[in-house]
Amino acid sequence: MLDIMLHPGLILILAGFLALAAPKQLRRFIMIAGPLFAVVAALLLPLGTTWGFDFVAGYHVQLIYVDKLSWLFTFIFSVLAAICSIYAAHNENKMEALCSLSYAGCAIGVTLAKDWLCFIFFWEALAFTSLYLVWCNHTPESRRAGFRYLLVHMLGGNLLLFGIFLTVSGGNFEVGNLTAGPHGYAYWLMLAGMCVNVAMPPVNAWLVDAYGNSTLTGGVFMSCLTTKVAVYALVRVFAGTDLLMWGGALMAVYGASYAIMENDMRKLLAHHIISQTGFMVAGAGIGTGMALNGATAHAFCDILFKSSLFMCASTIIYATGIRRINEISGMMKRLPLVGLCFFVAAFSISGIPLFNGFVSKVITVHAAAEAGNGLLFSLLELASIGTFLSIPLKMGYFIFLRSDSKKVAIKRPVPVNMYAGMCIGAFLCTLYGVYPDLLYRHFAFEMAPYHPFTADKILQTAEMLGMAMVPFLMYLPKMEPHTAISLDTDWFYRKPFGFLVVRCAELFCALCGGLGNAWNVLYENFMGMTANPMNILDARPFRRVKHYSPDNYRTSIADPMMITLTVLVASILYFISRIQ
Amino acid sequence: MTKFSVKTVYLLVAAVLLLCVLGEFMGVHLHGAEWWPLPIGYNIFFGFVGAWVLIILAKMIMAPLLQRDEDYYDRGGEKDA
C-alpha cells in the first residue's frame, strides 16, 4: 500500500484537486507543496517496485512499475512540476492549477504504467488536461487553437488506442519493445499515434499552434511534458526503429529552420521543441545503448533548459505585454535577472560546455557517428548550429543585448515566484552541466564509459559554434524577424480542408433545408386532404349546400355499401383465381 | 550592434578559432562519422557553411514562400461563430 502512496503522479493529481477546492492562500501552498511531495516520493520510489490491482475479467492493471528508465522520467517530471508550480504560484485561476498539476501527474502515470490499459488511460488524460491550458487563455485565437489541438490529439490518441486494442487482442498486455515485430497493423497504428504526440512532420504544427496560444504559465508546463512523454514511449516501445532515425533528423533541421524565421518568442521556442525532440527521436531510432541513453539524457536536460527558456519568454510577455521579437529590445538592462537566466538556458540548449545541453546532446550526435551514419551525424550537427543561431544569437541579441531603441515599458512588476522558478531552472541547467555524473549514474542502458569533457568534444563544439557566429553577423540586418506568420503543415487542415468542410456544411445545410421545405409542402397538402376524411368520401358537389344541415357531415349509406361490396367482389375473384 | 562591437566579436571568434586550430595541430583529433579523424579545420568549415545554408534557406527561400500576414487565416473566414 505504501507503493501507491509513493506514486508521484497520483500525488500531483490529488494536489490539483485540493488546489481546486482550496482558498487562495492555501492554494498557493498546495501548488508548491504538492509537487515537492511528488519529488520526495520519486526519490523514495525504489527500483523494481511494482503495484497493481485486479480490474474486470481477471485483467490485472499494473499502475506502478519502476525501472531505471521510468524512474528517470518520473523524477524529472516531478522536478519540472515543482519548478513550474513555483513559477505559476501567483496565478489565481483554480482550473488552471488543477489542469497543470493533473497534466504533470498524467505524464508520470504514463511513465510508470506497465500495462497497456493504464498507459492509454493516462495518455488520453494527458491530452485533455493540457487542452484546458490552451483554452484558459480566453482569446478567440486560443479557443480555435485548442480545438485544432484537440482534433490532432484525438487522431493520435485513437490511432494508439486501436493499435493497443489489436496488441492486447493478440495477448500482449505489457508495455514493451515492439521493434522486433510482428509489424502488423497494431505496430504501425501505435507508431503513428506516438509520432503525433512527438510532433513529427507532417503532424507537427499542433505544437507551435497550441503552445504559442496557451496561457503564460500553462505554456511552461506544456513545453516539457507531451513531447517528452512521447519520447519515453518511443524509447520504451520503438527503440531501434530505422524510420525514427530519419524522422528525428528531419524534425531537428525542420524545427531549426522555422525558428530562424519566427517572430513570436514562444512560437520560436516551440519550433525548437520540435528540433530538440528530433535529437531524442533520432537517438531512439539508432537504438544502441549509447543512443538510447543520449535520448533519455537529452530529454532530461531539455526539460530543464526548455522550461527555463519558456519561463523567461513568458516573464517578458507578462511584464511588457509584447510577444514579438521585432517590437522589443534592451531587456538586459530592464530585466537583468531574466536575461541572466535566459542566457544560461540558451547556452544549455546550444550545447555549450559546462551547461547541461552539452553533456546530453553530444551523446546522441556521437552515437550517430559511432553507428557510422555520416548523413545523420551531419544533419544533427546542422540542427545544433540552427539552435545556436536562433536562440542565443537571434533571441539573445534582439531581445536582450541590442540598444534600447524600442523603449519598451515594464507595465507590471515580475512576481518573486516567477524569478524563483527561472533561477531554479537555470541553476539546475548549470549543475547538471558541471556535474554530469548526477545524470549519467541513472542511465538505463548499457554503454561504454562516456566522458563529455574531452578536448576533442570541446574543440569540435567551439569551432563549429564559434564559426557559426560569422554568417549571423554578416546577415545581422536581415536576421531581425518580420511581423508575419509562417505557414506550416496546419495550412492543409486550416485552408483546403477547412474550405472543404465549410462548403460541405453549406451543401448539407442547403440540402437539409430543401428537403425540409419539400416535406413541409407535402405535409401541408396531405394534411388538408386528410383533415376530414369525409371530404374524400363525400366529394359530390351537389351535396355541398350553403345552409347548415347535419346530413352534410354524414356520409350516405351508399358509400360503406360500395366499399364493402367492392372488397367482397375482389376477395371472391382472388380466391377463384387461386382455385383455378 | 555598432561597427566597433561587431569588429570585437569577429576578433574574439578569430582568437577562439585560432586556439582550436592550434589544439588540433598539437594532436587533438576531432571525429566524424565512423569515428574517423576529420581534416584539420573541418568543423570551422562546417560551422560556417551550415549557418550560411540555414540562413539562406530560412530567410531567402522559406520566408518568401511561406510567410504571410498575421491575419492570413482570419481573412479566409476562420472566425468564431
Short description:
The complex is a heterodimer of chains A (580) and B (81). Helix content of chain A is 72%, strand content 2%. Chain A is mainly alpha-helical.
What's the arrangement of secondary structure elements?
The complex is a heterodimer of chains A (580) and B (81).
Chain A: H1 2-5, H2 8-21, H3 24-44, E1 50-54, E2 60-65, H4 68-87, H5 94-112, H6 116-135, H7 140-169, H8 185-197, H9 205-212, H10 216-237, H11 242-261, H12 265-286, H13 289-320, H14 331-334, H15 336-350, H16 356-370, H17 374-401, H18 416-434, H19 437-440, H20 455-474, H21 476-479, E3 485-486, H22 490-494, H23 496-530, H24 534-537, H25 558-579
Antiparallel strand pairs in A: 1-2
Helix pairs in contact in A: 2-3, 2-5, 3-4, 4-5, 4-10, 4-13, 4-18, 5-6, 5-10, 6-7, 6-10, 7-8, 7-9, 8-10, 9-12, 10-12, 10-13, 11-12, 11-17, 12-13, 12-16, 12-17, 13-15, 13-16, 13-18, 15-17, 15-18, 16-17, 16-18, 17-20
Chain B: H1 3-25, H2 42-66, E1 67-68, H3 72-75
Structure explained in plain terms:
The complex is a heterodimer of chains A (580) and B (81). Helices cover 72% and strands 2% of the residues of chain A. The mean pLDDT of chain A is 90. In chain A, strands 1-2 form a two-stranded antiparallel ribbon. Chain A has 25 helices and 3 strands. Among the domains of chain A are: 239-485, no CATH class; 533-542 and 552-580. Chain A starts with a helix and ends with a helix. Chain A is an all-alpha fold. The mean pLDDT of chain B is 81. The radius of gyration of chain B is 21 Å and the shape is elongated. The N and C termini of chain B lie far apart (47 Å). Chain B contains 3 helices and 1 strand, in the order ααβα. Chain B has one domain (3-67). Chain B has 81 residues and is mostly helical. At the A-B interface, helix 7, helix 11, helix 16, helix 17 and helix 20 of A face helix 1, helix 2 and strand 1 of B.
